[in-house]
Amino acid sequence: MSRYYCPFCSSRYQFYETRSDGVLICGHCRDPLVKKGFINSRRFIGVVAASAFLAPIVIMIIYVINDFTKEKFPNNSETLVLLTIDK
Ligand SMILES: [Zn+2]
Q1: What's the CA-to-centroid distance between 49 and ligand 1, angstroms?
Q2: What is the pLDDT of residues 30-87, one digit of tens each?
Q3: This prediction's pTM
Q4: Rounded Cα gap, residues 4 and 8, in angstroms
Q5: Containing domain of residue 45, as a range?
Q6: Cystine design at 6: which of 11, 19, 26, 68 (Cβ 3.0–4.6 Å)?
Q7: Cα 47 to ligand 1 centre (Å)
Q8: Cα 42 to averaged position of ligand 1 atoms, centre (Å)
């Protein structure tokens, strides 16, 4: 039942009836119900907006972790010796 909705009435106050020919209709306006998509458009836009905000943060965290591991690398005494010998 929840997969169908009335596009004209508020989603909070909808109640559905079955017409004599078996078609689901809205209890308020008597229009046939519309089948919902797998992801409704409002949720999809919300996910896109949220990922637009979260993606730079995730990329920044990845870069910070990469820099952190690179900076830590010469602290190893063996590589530090090798680096000084090469110079
Ligand atoms: Zn309606």
Answers
A1: 30
A2: 899 888 766 667 888 999 999 999 999 999 999 999 988 887 655 566 666 666 666 5
A3: 0.38
A4: 12
A5: 41-82
A6: 26
A7: 27
A8: 19
